[in-house]
Structures are given as structure tokens and as C-alpha cells.
Amino acid sequence: MFDGLFAFGNSLASFMTLESVFMALASSLVGVVIGALPGLTATMGVALMTTLTIKLPSSQALLILICTYVGAIYGGSRSAILLNIPGTPASAASCLDGYALARQGHAGRAMGIATTGSVLGTLIGMFFLALFTPLLGDVALKFGAYEFFWLAVFGVIISATLTGGDALKGWICGFAGLFVATIGQDGIHAFERFSFDNRDLAGGLSLVPALVGAFGFAEILVAMKERRPVPEINPFDTVIPKLKDVFQYWRTILRSGIIGTFIGIVPGVGEDVAAWSSYAAAKRASKEKEKFGKGSIEGLMAAETGDNACVPGAIIPVLTLQIPGSAPAAVLMAAMLIHGVKPGPMIMLESPQFVYDVVAMMLLATIGILIYGLVLTKLLVKVLRVPTTIIVPMIFVLCVVGTYALSSRLFDVWTMLFFGVLGYVLRQYKFPVAPLVLGIVLGDLMEKSLRRGLVLSDGDLTPFFTRPIAGSIFAIIAIVLLMRAPFMQKLFKRKTP
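RESULT FIELD:
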């Protein structure tokens, strides 16, 4: 325990430079703005910032990305409270009581409650991140090629739950991502596949252009189609939270923080489920059930604590198993790989300090959202007035410049545009985009693990099913597939009164 505290202290001290603090505060601000603007999700924010941090050292780049992630999840509450429009899907639950409080003339108080819940939720999640990651890392050290293969398959299978939509559509996108990962030379013998004698394709499709296109450029196309009107913002009172609001609902804060963290650990669920689950649990346990949905301080506190606690929770499986807990965490994992950080079971042996570096980054991000939530709220909400006609061209320029700067290849820009159009088409037909990217990320791991496993077993498939951990993961996958089968869903519907 004390070793962990000392490691965290060393990590925090390493980021206590003027440059690092400035980067943390600036990127947290960017995240808050992205989260506050309806339609610009945390996933898109992390993907876009990945292009802008390519040339930076890995520690600085990941500091910026994590702060952007935390800030975006928090920033969604701004528009949810003021406009009844969730800036991010995670803030949907905050609309119920946050907007009701704003209508009652307590918008400032609601802002303060949301800030307090977000800060405390992130702190609770950080505690479990520091506590559980080393423990899970020790278990994950027993993983070999067989287990890694099933983990990659599991990551694609659970991608169906990343957005809570049709499972089949999620799997189609996930396996499409696996196919994209096979384009170019294979990782063992460098044999060209699906290149069609194109030298650009022979090297494979870069991950960053795919990320930026699927989440950045696609959002631009959606925003251009919808043409969201400029909202009117009413003035509000003080945003300094009352201490009694914090102490009165300490049980709700603790409960929501734990729920949010553990939902984050479950791969593919995400911050929106954490918010709704925390809200539902708070309502069941509350002595003021009648106030929920009508301006409940407790309900707003529960929702904001839950979704922000989910952020550190979602990073736990990223670091230990290389499986993201949410869509933004999937993009963050891809960014880690791009910057040379290899999350997974070996991380506690190869770079154990990195886990505590992440916790320190989370703390700086938490300080950032606390400052912006209490000091700059009145200024920040004015960003909501910026018309789409100004925001969209700025984001497009960042997408193109960031993609081209990666390797100075025009082909990467075309790749970004292709995935942007593909992402837009998928959205129009209600296909989730996150599983597509997750398939691209996990494709290389799946293929190499399968081929290494077959080499070790002389072509025998038996070890993939008979080894204890590999067999257990396979059993979980089989159960997930079985539960998603149409006949099982019909059976459950019949039993449900």
C-alpha cells in the first residue's frame, strides 16, 4: 500500500512543472468546451486531440488526452442544465433534475452541485484505479497467446453494448474493423494482403486518420445536416456549492461513485449507463423520491458522480487487459498504442509507474474541472452561443491538418475523409461507430495471438479451449452470444410480466 502511495507521489511530483500544469488546465478547458457543445462527444474530442499530440512526448500527450476526456464528460452537464440538451450522452440523466432546477431559478446551484459531484466521482474512481489496477495486473500476467486471442474476440463481441443499440449491427461494425486491420502486410511474414498493388495500402491504414474520420469528420457532416440553432441562455445565480448539499448526501455520493467505477470496469457499457444506474439507485434509496425529475439535488448529484466515476473505472481494463470500458476509453487506448505505451497484462512489469502516472493525470484534470466549474462557468456557457457555421469549419481544419501532420502523406487525409463518410453513413442507418474503431485496434492483437498460439500448439486448437483462463473467457463469450440470440430474448420477454 505504502509503495503505491510513494509511486503516486513520485508521479504527481513529475507533473508539478509549469508546462505540465498549463497543459492539464488548457486541455481540461478544451474538454469542457467540447462536452458543453451538443453533438461534440468525448470520443470525438479525444480522437481530435490525438492528432494534435502526435509529436509530443508520450507523458505530455497522454496528460492532454486524459484531461480532455475528463473535461468532456464533465462539460456535458453545462448544456444539460441550461438548455435541457445533454452535451454528451453521459449527461442525459443530468437533464432530468438539472434543467428543472434551472427553470426554478437555481441554475447556479445546479452547476455547483454538478461540479461537486463530478469532482468527487472522479476522486472515488481514481482511488479504485490505483487500488485495483495492480491487483488485476498480477492476475493478467498469467495470460498467454491463447488468452489474448479470446480477449480480443471478447472486445469485439462486447462492442455491441458500446452504444446500447442492436447487437448485430455492433458486431457487423466490429468485424468490419477486424477486416480493416488485415489490410497491408501481416505482422509475422510481411505478406501483403488486400493492397491491390497500391503502395500506400501495402503499409496498412493508419489508426489516427481512421479515428479522426470516424469521430471527427463524421460529426461535422451530422452537424451540417442538422443545423442546430443558436440557443438562448438565461442568467443564473452563484455557482458556489453549499456544504450542506455535500454532507447531506454523502451516502449518495459514495454509492454513485462505487456504482460508476464498477460499471466503468465492465467493458463496453460506458458513462451514460453509469449515470442512469447511479440515478436509479439513488431514487430507490432516497427518502425524497417525489422530488426526482422535478429538481432533486440528490438526483443531480447521483448522476454526475456516477458518470464521472466511470472514467477512471473504464481505464482499469484498458491498462490491465487492453480492453476499453467505454467508447472514449477505446480511443484513449488507441492513442496509448500510437504513443508507444503498451497497456495490457505486462504493464505492471514493463512500466508499473505508468499506472500511477495516469492517476496523477486524473488528479490534475479534476483540479481543472473544479476551477472551471466554480470560476469560469458564466464565461464558458457563452461558448454555447457560437453558431455551428463557425465551429464546423474550425473542426474540419483541425481534422485535415492533424491527419496530414502525422506523416505528411495526402493518402492519410483521403483515409480520414473515407472513414468520415463511412461513419456518417453508419450513423444514418443506426450502426455504432465505436465497434468499428475497436475492431481496428484489436485486429492486430487477435491475429498475432491466434497465429502464435497455433505455432506453440503445432496447429492444435485444443489449448484455446482447455486452458483454464482461455476456456473461461470463451465461456463468457458464448454466454454473451447466447443471451443476445433472438430465441433467448423472446424467452425472457415471455417471462417478464
